């Protein structure tokens, strides 16, 4: 089983991934996460905006998935901390994300995720996560 298949299997078993309905598309080491729009993801019905918690969770899972894809860890990493910058309103439409591993050490990794909708150069939110990669 290759790394992409292992990642797909892991994500299929994570309850929050199933609740959000997110999935990933992998081509080599390039991964794009997709959060298909669903009414249950609306946080503000007046302006039809996606819930910030759904966006943040989507970005965190994208960061963890990218790290697992490009590293040799046996298990997915655990979150140490995250910082999320909400830059634009998440509209009632599909959301996409990509992540980049900024630094991968023996015990910790820094990963940056960015989510967008219609235009990739206009991000909705950006996450910086520090993840624990080795467990003693």
Model description:
There is one protein chain. By secondary structure, the protein is of the alpha+beta class. It has one domain (3-132): Thiol Ester Dehydrase, Chain A. 26% of the residues lie in helices and 38% in strands. It has 3 helices and 8 strands, in the order H-H-E-E-E-E-H-E-E-E-E. The strands form 2 sheets. It has a 6-stranded antiparallel beta sheet with strand order 1-2-6-7-8-5, with helices on one face. The chain has a two-stranded antiparallel ribbon with strand order 3-4. Helix 1 runs antiparallel to helix 3 (52-70). The longest helix has 19 residues, at 52-70. The radius of gyration is 14 Å and the shape is globular.
Keyword list:
about 140 residues, alpha+beta, Thiol Ester Dehydrase, Chain A, six-stranded antiparallel beta sheet, two-stranded antiparallel ribbon, 3 helices, 8 strands, about 25% helix, globular
Q: Topology, pairings included?
A:
Blueprint: H1 3-12, H2 15-20, E1 23-27, E2 30-35, E3 42-44, E4 49-50, H3 52-70, E5 78-86, E6 95-104, E7 108-116, E8 125-132
Antiparallel strand pairs: 1-2, 2-6, 3-4, 5-8, 6-7, 7-8
Helix pairs in contact: 1-3
Shape by Cα distribution: globular
| Secondary-structure class | alpha+beta
Strand order of the largest sheet: 1-2-6-7-8-5
Q: Which H/E pattern describes the elements?
A: HHEEEEHEEEE
Topology, number of strands: 8
Cα distance spanning the termini: 26 Å
Radius of gyration, in angstroms, nearest whole number: 14 Å
CATH class annotation: Alpha Beta
């Amino acid at each position: 089983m290759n790394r992409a298949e292992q990642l797909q299997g892991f994500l299929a078993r994570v309850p929050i991934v199933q609740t959000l309905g997110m999935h990933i598309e992998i081509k080599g080491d390039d991964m794009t996460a997709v959060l298909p729009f669903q009414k249950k993801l609306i946080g503000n019905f007046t302006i039809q905006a996606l819930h910030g918690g759904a966006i943040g969770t989507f970005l965190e899972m994208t960061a963890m998935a990218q790290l697992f894809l490009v590293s040799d860890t046996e298990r997915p990493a655990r979150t140490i901390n995250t910082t999320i910058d909400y830059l634009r309103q998440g509209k009632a439409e599909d959301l996409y994300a990509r992540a980049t591993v900024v630094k991968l050490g023996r015990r910790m990794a820094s990963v940056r995720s960015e989510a967008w909708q219609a235009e990739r150069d206009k991000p909705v939110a950006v996450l910086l996560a520090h993840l624990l990669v080795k467990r003693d």
